[in-house]
Specification:
Helices cover 18% and strands 43% of the residues. 40% of the residues are buried. The longest helix has 14 residues. By secondary structure, the chain is α+β, with helices and mostly antiparallel strands. The two termini are 13 Å apart. Strands 1, 2, 3, 4, 5, 14 and 15 form a seven-stranded antiparallel sheet that branches. Strands 6, 9, 10, 11, 12 and 13 form a six-stranded antiparallel sheet that branches. The chain is globular. The protein has two domains: 102 residues, Immunoglobulin-like (Sandwich); 155 residues, C8orf32 fold.
């Protein structure tokens, strides 16, 4: 399946910004199961390309001329395999053990530990028990935009009982780590069709062991990640995999508008749909 993606992030500032720097993780990963057919990044300023410790292609962009707007656009096509939910162990990257340590956003509370124990039992790294956990998280943290923000932790989202895909992914990661299973956060795009969810999305990879590798799980849609999922970045939590992060000098109050369009075409097929 071929996903066509266009993503624009636009900032408008109350006053001129004299200097800004952005770290952009907006290029799809070269992971097994997906191949970048074409991709371009459109953004003003000086650009430095590097790969972070998690294997994410990162563009560091600096803009030193005064500006009151900033537009960041990526566009391209990515081919996704039917069996993209399973990925072999990484070669030359971090050990899976790096994804065991809790972070501020994934530190387990008593409620997180109880949720993990209730659903994972004695076989925490088995696909069936992990899908049972996914179902449990989806019931415990209902999808509801506008309540949480990027600073909310897994424990806070679980206490609230609502959140978005980021929160659900954080709870999954926190539960797995609490059970001694490495797990990592994934940011990317999702072709929602007529489901109505945002095209920007988050889910998680869970380590099944050296013989099987990573299993990619989407709590929001209660499924293994597949042909509708395009991977951008991975990390210990949202902060490691955020598509856009930056700082600026000046500007005063800012507004941000994000538009994401994902269309899909079956490879070799005729039609294309939103």
């Amino acid at each position: 399946m071929l996903l066509h993606i266009r993503h624009e992030t636009r900032y408008e500032y109350q006053e001129p910004v004299s200097y800004s720097i952005q770290a952009l993780k907006l290029t799809p990963r070269a992971d097994p199961g997906q191949r970048v057919v074409s991709w371009r990044l459109l953004v003003p300023g000086e650009r430095l390309e590097q790969v972070d410790p998690f294997g994410n292609l990162t563009h560091v962009v600096t803009l030193e001329t005064p500006h009151r707007t900033l537009s960041i656009v990526v566009e391209g096509s990515v081919e996704i395999d039917d069996d993209s939910s399973m990925m072999p162990p990484d070669t030359g990257g971090l050990s899976p053990l790096a994804y065991l340590a809790p972070t501020a956003l994934t530190r387990p509370s008593a409620a997180v530990r109880n949720l993990a124990e209730r659903h994972l039992g004695r076989h925490p790294a088995a696909p069936d028990t992990l899908m049972d956990l996914v179902t449990g998280i989806r019931a415990a943290v209902a999808y509801q935009p506008g309540i949480t923000n990027v600073a909310h932790s897994a424990a806070e989202a679980l206490d609230l009982g609502v959140g978005v895909c980021q929160d659900q992914a954080h709870v999954l990661v926190a539960c797995c780590r609490a059970a001694g299973v490495p797990a990592r956060y994934v940011s990317g795009y999702f072709h929602s069709g007529d489901l109505g969810e945002a095209a920007s999305h988050a889910w998680a990879d869970v380590w099944l062991g050296p013989d099987q590798g990573w299993l990619s799980l989407d709590v929001t849609h209660a499924e293994q990640a597949g042909t509708r999922h395009c991977r951008l970045a991975v990390g210990r939590d949202y902060l490691d995999a955020a598509p856009v992060r930056g700082v600026r000098r000046g500007g005063g109050y800012e507004t941000m508008a994000v538009t994401v369009q994902v269309t899909v075409q079956v490879v070799g097929g005729q039609g294309q749909q939103q």
